[in-house]
Fold:
Amino acid sequence: MTELSNSAQTPTLRRPFSVRTQPGFATIAMVCFFLLYAPLLPLVVYSFNSGTSIAFWEGFSFRWYVAAWDNEFVQDATIRSVVVATSASFTATCLATMAALGTTRTRPYRGLTAIYAMINQPLMVPEIVTAVALLILFATIKAVTNYHGLAYLIIAHTAFCIPFAYMPIRARLEGMDLSLETAAADLYATPWKTFRRVTLPLVWPGVLAGLMLAFVISLDDVVITEFVKSAGQDTLPTYMLGQLRRAITPEVHAISTVLLAVSVAMVTIFFFLNRKMQ
Amino acid sequence: MSTLDQLAQSELATGENRASAIADATHRAHVRRRLLLTTPALIVLFCAASGPLLIMLIYSFLSAGDYGGVEWTLSWDGWANVFMQRDIFDGTLSIADAHVSILWRSVKLSLLTTFTALVFGFPTAYFIATRPPRTRNLWLFLITIPFWTNLLIRTFAIMEVIRNQGVINTILKSLELIDEPIQMLFTDFAIMIGMTYVYLPLMVLPIYASMEKLDFRLVEAGYDLYATRFRVLRRIILPLVKPGVVAGSILVFIPSLGAYVTPRLLGGGKNMMLGNLIELQFGQGRNWPLGAALSFSLLIIVMAALLIYVRGVGKPESGHD
Structure:
Protein backbone atom coordinates (compact mmCIF):
# COMPACT_ATOMS: atom_id res chain seq x y z
CA MET A 1 0.00 0.00 0.00
CA THR A 2 2.72 2.48 0.95
CA GLU A 3 4.69 1.50 -2.09
CA LEU A 4 1.75 2.22 -4.34
CA SER A 5 1.11 5.65 -2.88
CA ASN A 6 4.81 6.45 -3.17
CA SER A 7 4.94 5.64 -6.83
CA ALA A 8 1.77 7.62 -7.37
CA GLN A 9 3.26 10.61 -5.60
CA THR A 10 6.64 10.83 -7.24
CA PRO A 11 5.43 12.10 -10.62
CA THR A 12 3.40 14.87 -8.98
CA LEU A 13 6.41 16.00 -6.98
CA ARG A 14 8.73 16.16 -9.96
CA ARG A 15 8.13 18.43 -12.90
CA PRO A 16 6.11 16.56 -15.53
CA PHE A 17 8.36 15.06 -18.18
CA SER A 18 8.08 17.00 -21.42
CA VAL A 19 9.26 15.42 -24.66
CA ARG A 20 9.58 18.86 -26.21
CA THR A 21 12.23 20.41 -23.99
CA GLN A 22 15.97 20.02 -24.10
CA PRO A 23 18.02 21.12 -21.08
CA GLY A 24 19.51 24.59 -21.45
CA PHE A 25 17.96 25.32 -24.83
CA ALA A 26 15.46 27.83 -23.51
CA THR A 27 18.24 29.64 -21.63
CA ILE A 28 20.44 29.85 -24.73
CA ALA A 29 17.44 31.10 -26.73
CA MET A 30 16.79 33.84 -24.18
CA VAL A 31 20.47 34.85 -24.20
CA CYS A 32 20.28 34.89 -27.97
CA PHE A 33 17.25 37.19 -28.06
CA PHE A 34 18.88 39.43 -25.46
CA LEU A 35 22.11 39.65 -27.47
CA LEU A 36 20.19 40.46 -30.65
CA TYR A 37 18.49 43.48 -29.15
CA ALA A 38 20.76 44.72 -26.34
CA PRO A 39 23.43 46.30 -28.59
CA LEU A 40 20.78 48.44 -30.28
CA LEU A 41 19.82 50.02 -26.96
CA PRO A 42 22.88 52.29 -26.41
CA LEU A 43 22.57 53.37 -30.03
CA VAL A 44 19.02 54.60 -29.51
CA VAL A 45 19.73 56.04 -26.04
CA TYR A 46 22.76 58.11 -27.08
CA SER A 47 20.89 59.61 -30.01
CA PHE A 48 18.99 61.58 -27.36
CA ASN A 49 22.14 62.74 -25.58
CA SER A 50 22.32 66.52 -25.17
CA GLY A 51 26.13 66.53 -25.09
CA THR A 52 28.58 65.97 -27.94
CA SER A 53 29.98 62.83 -26.36
CA ILE A 54 28.98 59.32 -27.32
CA ALA A 55 30.38 57.94 -24.07
CA PHE A 56 28.90 60.15 -21.34
CA TRP A 57 25.24 60.85 -20.81
CA GLU A 58 24.57 64.55 -20.32
CA GLY A 59 20.80 64.78 -20.44
CA PHE A 60 17.88 64.28 -22.79
CA SER A 61 17.42 66.38 -25.91
CA PHE A 62 16.39 66.17 -29.55
CA ARG A 63 19.45 68.25 -30.44
CA TRP A 64 21.00 65.68 -32.76
CA TYR A 65 17.79 64.97 -34.60
CA VAL A 66 17.52 68.69 -35.31
CA ALA A 67 21.18 68.78 -36.32
CA ALA A 68 20.68 65.87 -38.72
CA TRP A 69 17.51 67.44 -40.11
CA ASP A 70 19.34 70.74 -40.79
CA ASN A 71 22.43 69.06 -42.25
CA GLU A 72 22.46 69.68 -45.98
CA PHE A 73 24.37 66.46 -46.71
CA VAL A 74 21.88 64.41 -44.74
CA GLN A 75 18.97 66.07 -46.54
CA ASP A 76 20.48 65.35 -49.95
CA ALA A 77 21.37 61.79 -49.01
CA THR A 78 17.87 61.15 -47.65
CA ILE A 79 16.17 62.45 -50.78
CA ARG A 80 18.56 60.42 -52.95
CA SER A 81 17.96 57.28 -50.88
CA VAL A 82 14.19 57.63 -51.13
CA VAL A 83 14.28 58.40 -54.88
CA VAL A 84 16.52 55.41 -55.62
CA ALA A 85 14.63 53.03 -53.31
CA THR A 86 11.23 54.08 -54.65
CA SER A 87 12.11 53.84 -58.34
CA ALA A 88 14.14 50.65 -57.93
CA SER A 89 11.58 48.82 -55.77
CA PHE A 90 8.68 49.88 -58.00
CA THR A 91 10.43 48.80 -61.22
CA ALA A 92 11.71 45.60 -59.63
CA THR A 93 8.23 44.68 -58.38
CA CYS A 94 6.65 45.22 -61.82
CA LEU A 95 9.34 43.12 -63.49
CA ALA A 96 9.18 40.46 -60.77
CA THR A 97 5.39 40.21 -61.03
CA MET A 98 5.64 39.60 -64.76
CA ALA A 99 8.47 37.13 -64.25
CA ALA A 100 6.51 35.30 -61.55
CA LEU A 101 3.48 35.04 -63.87
CA GLY A 102 5.82 33.69 -66.53
CA THR A 103 7.49 31.08 -64.36
CA THR A 104 4.78 29.67 -62.09
CA ARG A 105 1.74 27.46 -62.68
CA THR A 106 3.14 25.94 -65.83
CA ARG A 107 4.61 22.70 -67.05
CA PRO A 108 8.39 23.01 -66.87
CA TYR A 109 9.68 24.32 -70.17
CA ARG A 110 13.16 24.45 -71.60
CA GLY A 111 15.23 27.23 -70.05
CA LEU A 112 13.18 27.46 -66.87
CA THR A 113 16.10 26.36 -64.68
CA ALA A 114 18.35 28.92 -66.34
CA ILE A 115 15.72 31.60 -65.68
CA TYR A 116 15.54 30.64 -62.00
CA ALA A 117 19.33 30.77 -61.78
CA MET A 118 19.40 34.22 -63.34
CA ILE A 119 16.67 35.61 -61.11
CA ASN A 120 18.37 34.26 -57.99
CA GLN A 121 21.87 35.28 -59.01
CA PRO A 122 21.95 38.43 -56.84
CA LEU A 123 21.20 36.22 -53.82
CA MET A 124 24.00 33.75 -54.52
CA VAL A 125 26.85 35.96 -55.70
CA PRO A 126 28.57 37.88 -52.87
CA GLU A 127 27.62 41.54 -52.96
CA ILE A 128 31.22 42.74 -53.18
CA VAL A 129 31.70 40.71 -56.38
CA THR A 130 28.63 42.21 -58.05
CA ALA A 131 29.71 45.63 -56.79
CA VAL A 132 33.17 45.58 -58.38
CA ALA A 133 31.80 44.02 -61.58
CA LEU A 134 29.32 46.93 -61.82
CA LEU A 135 32.14 49.36 -61.06
CA ILE A 136 34.10 48.03 -64.05
CA LEU A 137 31.13 48.27 -66.41
CA PHE A 138 29.79 51.64 -65.22
CA ALA A 139 33.23 53.28 -65.05
CA THR A 140 33.60 52.56 -68.77
CA ILE A 141 30.10 53.79 -69.58
CA LYS A 142 30.62 56.91 -67.47
CA ALA A 143 33.87 57.66 -69.30
CA VAL A 144 32.28 57.18 -72.73
CA THR A 145 28.92 58.91 -72.24
CA ASN A 146 29.98 61.43 -69.58
CA TYR A 147 26.63 60.82 -67.85
CA HIS A 148 26.99 60.63 -64.06
CA GLY A 149 23.35 60.60 -62.96
CA LEU A 150 21.27 58.45 -60.64
CA ALA A 151 20.31 55.98 -63.39
CA TYR A 152 23.29 53.74 -62.60
CA LEU A 153 22.21 53.40 -58.99
CA ILE A 154 18.60 52.79 -59.95
CA ILE A 155 19.47 50.05 -62.47
CA ALA A 156 21.88 48.35 -60.04
CA HIS A 157 19.32 48.49 -57.22
CA THR A 158 16.51 47.25 -59.48
CA ALA A 159 18.58 44.20 -60.42
CA PHE A 160 19.31 43.06 -56.86
CA CYS A 161 15.76 43.90 -55.72
CA ILE A 162 14.18 41.60 -58.32
CA PRO A 163 14.72 38.31 -56.42
CA PHE A 164 13.43 39.82 -53.17
CA ALA A 165 10.26 41.06 -54.88
CA TYR A 166 9.93 37.81 -56.83
CA MET A 167 9.92 35.46 -53.79
CA PRO A 168 6.64 36.50 -52.09
CA ILE A 169 4.83 37.00 -55.41
CA ARG A 170 5.82 33.56 -56.58
CA ALA A 171 4.81 32.04 -53.23
CA ARG A 172 1.41 33.71 -53.53
CA LEU A 173 0.89 32.59 -57.14
CA GLU A 174 1.79 29.01 -56.36
CA GLY A 175 -1.01 28.89 -53.80
CA MET A 176 -3.56 29.87 -56.47
CA ASP A 177 -4.84 27.50 -59.12
CA LEU A 178 -5.76 28.49 -62.66
CA SER A 179 -9.48 27.68 -62.38
CA LEU A 180 -10.64 31.26 -61.76
CA GLU A 181 -8.64 32.57 -64.70
CA THR A 182 -9.98 29.76 -66.89
CA ALA A 183 -13.51 30.65 -65.79
CA ALA A 184 -12.90 34.29 -66.70
CA ALA A 185 -11.61 33.26 -70.12
CA ASP A 186 -14.67 31.03 -70.59
CA LEU A 187 -16.81 34.10 -69.95
CA TYR A 188 -15.07 35.88 -72.85
CA ALA A 189 -12.80 38.10 -70.77
CA THR A 190 -9.76 39.30 -72.70
CA PRO A 191 -6.38 38.21 -71.27
CA TRP A 192 -5.75 41.76 -70.04
CA LYS A 193 -9.16 41.95 -68.41
CA THR A 194 -8.61 38.56 -66.78
CA PHE A 195 -5.32 39.79 -65.39
CA ARG A 196 -6.73 43.12 -64.24
CA ARG A 197 -9.94 41.79 -62.66
CA VAL A 198 -9.01 38.29 -61.50
CA THR A 199 -5.28 37.59 -61.23
CA LEU A 200 -4.06 40.94 -59.91
CA PRO A 201 -6.56 41.26 -57.02
CA LEU A 202 -5.71 37.72 -55.94
CA VAL A 203 -1.94 38.15 -56.12
CA TRP A 204 -2.03 41.70 -54.68
CA PRO A 205 -0.86 40.88 -51.10
CA GLY A 206 2.17 39.11 -52.57
CA VAL A 207 2.92 42.10 -54.80
CA LEU A 208 2.68 44.50 -51.84
CA ALA A 209 4.91 42.28 -49.71
CA GLY A 210 7.44 42.09 -52.55
CA LEU A 211 7.37 45.86 -53.02
CA MET A 212 8.08 46.43 -49.34
CA LEU A 213 10.89 43.91 -49.14
CA ALA A 214 12.48 45.43 -52.24
CA PHE A 215 12.14 48.92 -50.76
CA VAL A 216 13.82 47.95 -47.48
CA ILE A 217 16.60 46.06 -49.26
CA SER A 218 17.30 49.00 -51.56
CA LEU A 219 17.15 51.54 -48.71
CA ASP A 220 19.67 49.54 -46.65
CA ASP A 221 22.17 48.76 -49.37
CA VAL A 222 25.73 49.88 -48.67
CA VAL A 223 28.19 47.85 -50.70
CA ILE A 224 26.81 48.08 -54.24
CA THR A 225 25.88 51.75 -53.76
CA GLU A 226 29.37 52.56 -52.48
CA PHE A 227 30.95 51.20 -55.66
CA VAL A 228 28.39 52.38 -58.22
CA LYS A 229 27.76 55.96 -57.02
CA SER A 230 29.50 58.86 -58.70
CA ALA A 231 31.33 61.49 -56.64
CA GLY A 232 29.04 63.37 -54.25
CA GLN A 233 26.21 60.89 -54.77
CA ASP A 234 25.90 59.60 -51.23
CA THR A 235 22.80 57.78 -50.06
CA LEU A 236 22.05 57.66 -46.34
CA PRO A 237 23.93 54.39 -45.69
CA THR A 238 27.03 55.43 -47.64
CA TYR A 239 26.95 58.83 -45.91
CA MET A 240 26.90 57.01 -42.58
CA LEU A 241 29.73 54.71 -43.66
CA GLY A 242 31.80 57.80 -44.44
CA GLN A 243 30.93 59.37 -41.08
CA LEU A 244 31.81 56.22 -39.13
CA ARG A 245 35.42 56.55 -40.20
CA ARG A 246 35.65 60.07 -38.79
CA ALA A 247 34.96 61.34 -35.29
CA ILE A 248 31.49 60.11 -34.49
CA THR A 249 28.92 62.51 -33.03
CA PRO A 250 25.46 61.45 -31.81
CA GLU A 251 24.14 62.74 -35.15
CA VAL A 252 25.00 59.34 -36.63
CA HIS A 253 23.07 57.76 -33.75
CA ALA A 254 20.07 59.92 -34.58
CA ILE A 255 20.13 58.93 -38.27
CA SER A 256 20.57 55.26 -37.32
CA THR A 257 17.62 55.41 -34.93
CA VAL A 258 15.36 56.89 -37.60
CA LEU A 259 16.45 54.28 -40.18
CA LEU A 260 15.96 51.56 -37.57
CA ALA A 261 12.43 52.81 -36.87
CA VAL A 262 11.60 52.84 -40.58
CA SER A 263 12.85 49.27 -41.03
CA VAL A 264 10.96 47.99 -37.98
CA ALA A 265 7.77 49.69 -39.19
CA MET A 266 8.11 48.18 -42.66
CA VAL A 267 8.80 44.68 -41.33
CA THR A 268 5.85 44.93 -38.95
CA ILE A 269 3.51 45.85 -41.80
CA PHE A 270 5.02 43.07 -43.90
CA PHE A 271 4.50 40.61 -41.04
CA PHE A 272 0.80 41.41 -40.68
CA LEU A 273 0.28 41.45 -44.44
CA ASN A 274 1.85 38.01 -44.57
CA ARG A 275 -0.39 36.79 -41.79
CA LYS A 276 -3.49 38.03 -43.61
CA MET A 277 -2.32 36.13 -46.68
CA GLN A 278 -2.28 32.82 -44.84
CA MET B 1 -15.42 -6.22 -89.10
CA SER B 2 -11.68 -6.14 -88.74
CA THR B 3 -11.30 -3.60 -91.58
CA LEU B 4 -13.91 -1.43 -89.96
CA ASP B 5 -12.04 -1.79 -86.75
CA GLN B 6 -8.81 -0.79 -88.43
CA LEU B 7 -10.52 2.17 -90.03
CA ALA B 8 -11.85 3.33 -86.71
CA GLN B 9 -8.45 2.80 -85.20
CA SER B 10 -6.69 4.89 -87.82
CA GLU B 11 -9.40 7.55 -87.59
CA LEU B 12 -8.82 7.66 -83.89
CA ALA B 13 -5.07 7.79 -84.38
CA THR B 14 -5.20 10.72 -86.80
CA GLY B 15 -7.61 12.42 -84.44
CA GLU B 16 -5.16 11.86 -81.65
CA ASN B 17 -2.33 13.12 -83.81
CA ARG B 18 -4.26 16.22 -84.66
CA ALA B 19 -5.18 16.72 -81.04
CA SER B 20 -1.59 16.33 -79.93
CA ALA B 21 -0.44 18.67 -82.71
CA ILE B 22 -2.91 21.28 -81.51
CA ALA B 23 -1.81 20.67 -77.93
CA ASP B 24 1.81 21.10 -79.00
CA ALA B 25 1.05 24.34 -80.79
CA THR B 26 -0.87 25.75 -77.84
CA HIS B 27 1.92 24.66 -75.53
CA ARG B 28 4.45 26.43 -77.72
CA ALA B 29 2.33 29.60 -77.76
CA HIS B 30 1.92 29.28 -74.01
CA VAL B 31 5.69 28.98 -73.48
CA ARG B 32 6.32 31.91 -75.84
CA ARG B 33 3.90 34.10 -73.87
CA ARG B 34 5.57 33.11 -70.61
CA LEU B 35 9.04 33.81 -71.92
CA LEU B 36 7.83 37.20 -73.14
CA LEU B 37 6.59 37.99 -69.62
CA THR B 38 9.92 36.99 -68.08
CA THR B 39 12.15 38.79 -70.61
CA PRO B 40 12.12 42.35 -69.14
CA ALA B 41 13.33 41.08 -65.75
CA LEU B 42 16.00 38.99 -67.44
CA ILE B 43 17.22 41.97 -69.48
CA VAL B 44 17.70 44.09 -66.34
CA LEU B 45 19.39 41.19 -64.56
CA PHE B 46 21.66 40.65 -67.54
CA CYS B 47 22.64 44.33 -67.69
CA ALA B 48 23.33 44.75 -63.98
CA ALA B 49 24.14 41.27 -62.67
CA SER B 50 25.26 38.54 -65.09
CA GLY B 51 26.66 40.76 -67.86
CA PRO B 52 29.07 42.67 -65.62
CA LEU B 53 30.36 39.35 -64.24
CA LEU B 54 31.24 38.22 -67.77
CA ILE B 55 33.03 41.49 -68.45
CA MET B 56 34.94 41.08 -65.19
CA LEU B 57 35.98 37.59 -66.24
CA ILE B 58 37.54 39.10 -69.38
CA TYR B 59 39.22 41.83 -67.29
CA SER B 60 40.88 39.21 -65.09
CA PHE B 61 42.89 38.09 -68.14
CA LEU B 62 44.11 41.58 -69.14
CA SER B 63 47.07 43.50 -67.80
CA ALA B 64 46.78 46.33 -65.33
CA GLY B 65 46.91 49.94 -66.46
CA ASP B 66 49.31 52.28 -64.67
CA TYR B 67 46.56 54.47 -63.18
CA GLY B 68 43.82 51.91 -62.64
CA GLY B 69 41.76 50.41 -65.45
CA VAL B 70 43.28 47.86 -67.83
CA GLU B 71 45.35 47.62 -70.95
CA TRP B 72 43.97 45.37 -73.66
CA THR B 73 46.80 42.85 -73.72
CA LEU B 74 46.32 39.26 -72.66
CA SER B 75 48.02 38.42 -69.37
CA TRP B 76 47.90 35.78 -66.67
CA ASP B 77 49.28 38.18 -64.07
CA GLY B 78 45.90 38.86 -62.52
CA TRP B 79 45.35 35.21 -61.67
CA ALA B 80 49.01 34.56 -60.85
CA ASN B 81 48.96 37.45 -58.38
CA VAL B 82 46.19 35.84 -56.37
CA PHE B 83 48.75 33.59 -54.70
CA MET B 84 52.08 34.76 -56.08
CA GLN B 85 53.94 38.02 -56.21
CA ARG B 86 56.66 39.12 -58.58
CA ASP B 87 59.67 40.76 -57.00
CA ILE B 88 60.01 44.31 -58.35
CA PHE B 89 63.81 44.08 -58.64
CA ASP B 90 64.73 40.63 -59.90
CA GLY B 91 61.34 39.48 -61.22
CA THR B 92 61.26 36.19 -59.35
CA LEU B 93 57.95 34.73 -58.23
CA SER B 94 57.25 33.95 -54.61
CA ILE B 95 54.18 33.13 -52.56
CA ALA B 96 52.19 36.28 -51.71
CA ASP B 97 52.13 35.95 -47.92
CA ALA B 98 49.75 38.88 -47.47
CA HIS B 99 47.14 37.37 -49.80
CA VAL B 100 47.44 33.91 -48.33
CA SER B 101 47.03 35.22 -44.79
CA ILE B 102 43.99 37.30 -45.79
CA LEU B 103 42.43 34.31 -47.53
CA TRP B 104 43.15 32.16 -44.49
CA ARG B 105 41.67 34.79 -42.15
CA SER B 106 38.53 34.98 -44.32
CA VAL B 107 38.00 31.23 -44.32
CA LYS B 108 38.89 30.86 -40.62
CA LEU B 109 36.63 33.70 -39.44
CA SER B 110 33.77 32.55 -41.67
CA LEU B 111 33.98 29.01 -40.29
CA LEU B 112 34.17 30.31 -36.71
CA THR B 113 31.21 32.60 -37.37
CA THR B 114 29.21 29.72 -38.82
CA PHE B 115 30.04 27.54 -35.82
CA THR B 116 29.17 30.21 -33.25
CA ALA B 117 25.95 31.05 -35.06
CA LEU B 118 25.06 27.34 -35.05
CA VAL B 119 25.75 27.01 -31.30
CA PHE B 120 23.38 29.92 -30.57
CA GLY B 121 21.02 29.45 -33.49
CA PHE B 122 20.14 25.78 -33.11
CA PRO B 123 18.74 25.98 -29.55
CA THR B 124 16.95 29.20 -30.46
CA ALA B 125 15.28 27.61 -33.48
CA TYR B 126 14.36 24.61 -31.33
CA PHE B 127 12.94 26.91 -28.68
CA ILE B 128 10.79 28.78 -31.22
CA ALA B 129 9.59 25.58 -32.87
CA THR B 130 8.43 24.11 -29.56
CA ARG B 131 6.37 27.16 -28.54
CA PRO B 132 2.58 26.95 -28.87
CA PRO B 133 1.47 28.26 -32.29
CA ARG B 134 0.11 31.54 -30.92
CA THR B 135 3.35 32.76 -29.34
CA ARG B 136 5.54 31.07 -31.96
CA ASN B 137 4.83 33.78 -34.53
CA LEU B 138 5.87 36.46 -32.07
CA TRP B 139 9.24 34.81 -31.38
CA LEU B 140 9.74 34.35 -35.10
CA PHE B 141 8.93 38.01 -35.62
CA LEU B 142 11.60 38.95 -33.05
CA ILE B 143 14.19 36.98 -35.04
CA THR B 144 13.06 38.49 -38.35
CA ILE B 145 13.27 42.15 -37.29
CA PRO B 146 17.09 42.28 -37.01
CA PHE B 147 17.28 40.38 -40.29
CA TRP B 148 15.58 43.24 -42.14
CA THR B 149 17.26 46.13 -40.33
CA ASN B 150 20.26 47.82 -41.80
CA LEU B 151 23.47 45.78 -41.64
CA LEU B 152 25.52 48.96 -41.29
CA ILE B 153 23.52 50.08 -38.26
CA ARG B 154 23.86 46.70 -36.57
CA THR B 155 27.62 46.69 -37.19
CA PHE B 156 27.77 50.22 -35.81
CA ALA B 157 25.87 49.05 -32.73
CA ILE B 158 28.46 46.31 -32.10
CA MET B 159 31.22 48.87 -32.61
CA GLU B 160 29.66 51.04 -29.91
CA VAL B 161 29.45 48.13 -27.49
CA ILE B 162 33.00 46.83 -27.80
CA ARG B 163 35.12 49.96 -28.35
CA ASN B 164 37.48 51.13 -25.63
CA GLN B 165 35.00 53.63 -24.18
CA GLY B 166 32.11 51.34 -25.05
CA VAL B 167 29.50 49.71 -22.86
CA ILE B 168 31.44 46.55 -21.99
CA ASN B 169 34.68 48.29 -21.06
CA THR B 170 32.81 50.97 -19.07
CA ILE B 171 30.95 48.36 -17.07
CA LEU B 172 34.07 46.27 -16.42
CA LYS B 173 35.93 49.40 -15.33
CA SER B 174 33.20 50.58 -12.99
CA LEU B 175 33.17 47.13 -11.42
CA GLU B 176 36.93 47.57 -11.05
CA LEU B 177 37.64 44.29 -12.78
CA ILE B 178 40.05 45.99 -15.16
CA ASP B 179 42.19 49.13 -15.05
CA GLU B 180 42.87 49.54 -18.72
CA PRO B 181 40.14 48.96 -21.33
CA ILE B 182 40.42 45.66 -23.18
CA GLN B 183 41.19 46.26 -26.83
CA MET B 184 38.41 44.43 -28.65
CA LEU B 185 37.65 46.72 -31.59
CA PHE B 186 39.95 46.30 -34.62
CA THR B 187 40.73 42.65 -33.90
CA ASP B 188 39.78 39.38 -35.59
CA PHE B 189 37.61 38.66 -32.56
CA ALA B 190 35.60 41.83 -33.24
CA ILE B 191 35.01 40.78 -36.85
CA MET B 192 33.86 37.34 -35.73
CA ILE B 193 31.48 38.75 -33.10
CA GLY B 194 30.13 41.29 -35.57
CA MET B 195 29.49 38.75 -38.33
CA THR B 196 27.85 36.32 -35.89
CA TYR B 197 25.59 39.11 -34.65
CA VAL B 198 24.70 40.27 -38.15
CA TYR B 199 24.11 36.86 -39.75
CA LEU B 200 22.56 34.94 -36.82
CA PRO B 201 18.96 35.23 -38.16
CA LEU B 202 20.13 33.54 -41.36
CA MET B 203 21.03 30.50 -39.24
CA VAL B 204 17.88 30.44 -37.14
CA LEU B 205 15.29 30.79 -39.91
CA PRO B 206 16.15 27.71 -42.04
CA ILE B 207 16.70 25.52 -38.97
CA TYR B 208 13.33 26.64 -37.67
CA ALA B 209 11.75 25.85 -41.04
CA SER B 210 12.82 22.20 -40.85
CA MET B 211 12.23 21.99 -37.08
CA GLU B 212 8.64 23.11 -37.58
CA LYS B 213 7.96 19.97 -39.64
CA LEU B 214 9.56 17.71 -37.02
CA ASP B 215 7.17 14.97 -35.87
CA PHE B 216 7.45 14.93 -32.07
CA ARG B 217 5.87 11.47 -31.93
CA LEU B 218 9.28 10.20 -33.10
CA VAL B 219 10.92 11.98 -30.16
CA GLU B 220 8.34 10.45 -27.84
CA ALA B 221 9.07 7.01 -29.28
CA GLY B 222 12.74 7.59 -28.56
CA TYR B 223 12.01 8.33 -24.90
CA ASP B 224 9.72 5.29 -24.70
CA LEU B 225 12.72 3.22 -25.75
CA TYR B 226 14.72 4.65 -22.82
CA ALA B 227 16.83 7.07 -24.80
CA THR B 228 18.39 9.94 -22.85
CA ARG B 229 17.70 13.54 -23.81
CA PHE B 230 21.11 13.86 -25.42
CA ARG B 231 20.65 10.64 -27.36
CA VAL B 232 17.26 11.77 -28.64
CA LEU B 233 18.81 15.04 -29.74
CA ARG B 234 21.72 13.35 -31.49
CA ARG B 235 20.02 10.33 -33.01
CA ILE B 236 16.50 11.58 -33.77
CA ILE B 237 16.23 15.37 -33.90
CA LEU B 238 19.58 16.22 -35.52
CA PRO B 239 19.28 13.78 -38.45
CA LEU B 240 15.74 15.00 -39.16
CA VAL B 241 16.58 18.70 -39.19
CA LYS B 242 19.93 18.23 -40.95
CA PRO B 243 18.76 19.97 -44.17
CA GLY B 244 17.92 23.08 -42.16
CA VAL B 245 21.25 22.98 -40.33
CA VAL B 246 23.17 22.67 -43.59
CA ALA B 247 21.10 25.41 -45.25
CA GLY B 248 21.62 27.74 -42.28
CA SER B 249 25.35 27.07 -42.20
CA ILE B 250 25.67 27.80 -45.92
CA LEU B 251 23.57 30.95 -45.61
CA VAL B 252 25.88 32.23 -42.85
CA PHE B 253 29.13 31.03 -44.41
CA ILE B 254 28.64 32.63 -47.83
CA PRO B 255 27.97 36.24 -46.78
CA SER B 256 30.66 35.95 -44.08
CA LEU B 257 33.23 34.97 -46.66
CA GLY B 258 32.32 37.93 -48.87
CA ALA B 259 31.78 40.36 -45.99
CA TYR B 260 33.00 43.87 -46.66
CA VAL B 261 31.33 46.36 -44.33
CA THR B 262 31.75 44.40 -41.08
CA PRO B 263 35.52 43.74 -41.40
CA ARG B 264 36.07 47.28 -42.64
CA LEU B 265 34.43 48.81 -39.58
CA LEU B 266 35.34 46.26 -36.91
CA GLY B 267 38.68 45.02 -38.24
CA GLY B 268 40.15 48.40 -39.03
CA GLY B 269 42.79 48.77 -41.73
CA LYS B 270 45.02 45.90 -40.64
CA ASN B 271 42.65 42.97 -40.27
CA MET B 272 41.42 42.69 -43.84
CA MET B 273 39.21 40.03 -45.30
CA LEU B 274 38.80 38.96 -48.91
CA GLY B 275 36.14 41.61 -49.61
CA ASN B 276 38.44 44.40 -48.43
CA LEU B 277 41.37 43.00 -50.41
CA ILE B 278 39.19 43.09 -53.54
CA GLU B 279 38.17 46.68 -52.83
CA LEU B 280 41.82 47.63 -52.31
CA GLN B 281 42.71 46.50 -55.85
CA PHE B 282 40.12 48.84 -57.33
CA GLY B 283 41.17 51.71 -55.06
CA GLN B 284 44.73 52.36 -53.93
CA GLY B 285 46.05 49.07 -55.34
CA ARG B 286 45.13 50.06 -58.91
CA ASN B 287 45.28 46.47 -60.04
CA TRP B 288 41.93 45.75 -61.65
CA PRO B 289 42.89 42.37 -63.19
CA LEU B 290 44.01 41.12 -59.76
CA GLY B 291 40.80 42.46 -58.21
CA ALA B 292 38.77 40.68 -60.90
CA ALA B 293 40.70 37.43 -60.37
CA LEU B 294 40.25 37.69 -56.58
CA SER B 295 36.50 38.26 -57.07
CA PHE B 296 36.29 35.12 -59.18
CA SER B 297 38.30 33.17 -56.62
CA LEU B 298 35.74 34.21 -54.01
CA LEU B 299 32.94 33.26 -56.37
CA ILE B 300 34.49 29.83 -56.95
CA ILE B 301 34.64 29.12 -53.20
CA VAL B 302 31.01 30.24 -52.84
CA MET B 303 29.90 28.02 -55.73
CA ALA B 304 31.78 25.08 -54.18
CA ALA B 305 29.92 25.66 -50.91
CA LEU B 306 26.60 25.82 -52.77
CA LEU B 307 27.46 22.60 -54.59
CA ILE B 308 28.13 20.87 -51.27
CA TYR B 309 24.78 22.16 -50.11
CA VAL B 310 22.94 20.81 -53.15
CA ARG B 311 24.76 17.45 -52.88
CA GLY B 312 24.25 17.19 -49.13
CA VAL B 313 20.66 18.32 -48.85
CA GLY B 314 19.12 17.80 -52.25
CA LYS B 315 19.67 14.04 -52.39
CA PRO B 316 18.44 12.73 -49.04
CA GLU B 317 15.30 14.85 -49.36
CA SER B 318 14.41 13.43 -52.75
CA GLY B 319 15.13 10.02 -51.26
CA HIS B 320 12.40 10.57 -48.67
CA ASP B 321 9.77 11.37 -51.27
